[in-house]
Amino acid sequence: MPIATYDLVALDCPDPATLSTFYADVLGGEVERSDDDWWVLSAPGGHRIAFQRVEGHRPPEWPNAGHNSQQLHLDFEVPDLDRAEEQVLALGAKVLDADDRQRSFRVYADPAGHPFCLCRE
Question: Tens of pLDDT along 21-34?
Fold first, then answer.
């Protein structure tokens, strides 16, 4: 049985409005704004891409994986954050930001160091 269900891919960027419009023009779909820092494209086929404002964002230096390489992270919805945390840690994940237990998400790194979030359904 899977631990989580796929929710979305989140792209860090300096201007979520502009980037979400770009991808909506490329893929189609509808863009929804949660606030100035978080926009979500619901693309045809049920896929979602979020665009998250990051102050001082620097684009990745592809293909340089050794410096400034984060391009995106994955979000996974789970029914129980504590249980899902136990399971992903058992699989080799590492905690990056999970101190605030009241928050609706927690941040981890996969075994290769890529960040992902577990988000409360």
Answer: 989 998 999 999 98
E strands present in the chain: 5-13, 30-35, 38-42, 48-53, 73-78, 94-97, 105-109, 115-120
Tell me if 117 sits within 8 A of 101, measured CB to CB.
Answer: no
Secondary structure (3-state) at 17? helix
Residue 2: partners with Cβ closer than 8 Å, 6 or more residues away = none
**Which alpha helices (H) appear in the chain, and where do they start and end?**
16-27, 81-90
- Tell me the chain's radius of gyration from C-alpha atoms: 15
The gap from C-alpha 54 to its chain's centroid, in whole angstroms, comes to 13
